[in-house]
Input
Amino acid sequence: MRHREAGETGSQAVLAAPGARDSRLTSGRRVGDAELERSAMANAALILAAGASSRFGGSPKALLPVDERTAVRRIAEVALAEGASPVVVVIGALRGPIAHELRGLPVELVEAENWYEGRTASIQAGVRALPEEHDLLFWPVDHPFVTERTVGTLFALKERDLLGTWFIPTYQGRGGHPVLWRACVRTALLELRTDAPVRSLLPELGPQVRRFSVDDPGVLENVDDPEQFRAAHQAWRAREGV
Output
């Protein structure tokens, strides 16, 4: 998979450093406490911004204004501020303007050449570009109003709960985004059909799925169309006192 840094110009490719295969998947053995601790500290982020934004007339949803920042830049800056590394942004249909917007940030851009096959195809492109031993924060660009505290809570909960593999924030009983996947979910994600939703993996994980309540309506605010964006933006501004 070809990808480059956000500030890069030209055609130079930047290859993600390969990581060792997650030992939790090797012969079904359990890892020791020290290995679990190291794994708990390794948090990557995958920001999904590969769609065509058809409901916005082809204008990139990632570039919607969130006050002084765009949606994709705010998400990337929050992920970086909370310690995620590396941070990968998956681009596809509208790659040019999104890459331009992220200039100067220490993020990697991954082009999902088959983005049109569905969201899972773009997720898989991002997963392949990330170190195999890293746990993964998955953050779609259409959820730009999530608080920094929610992201920090995801990371902290994962460090405390070593049996959970898929962490889902909820607000008023409904699950939202971003979610956090342990590295051991990677293989199942990559084996999905590109037209199959990632949530189809939830039943087989059963009790390893963790849902936890947050005081953050942003986890549910999915800006699928201009009307939804205006309503969510107005509500976010009111919460933030802007």
The two ends are 41 Å apart (CA to CA).
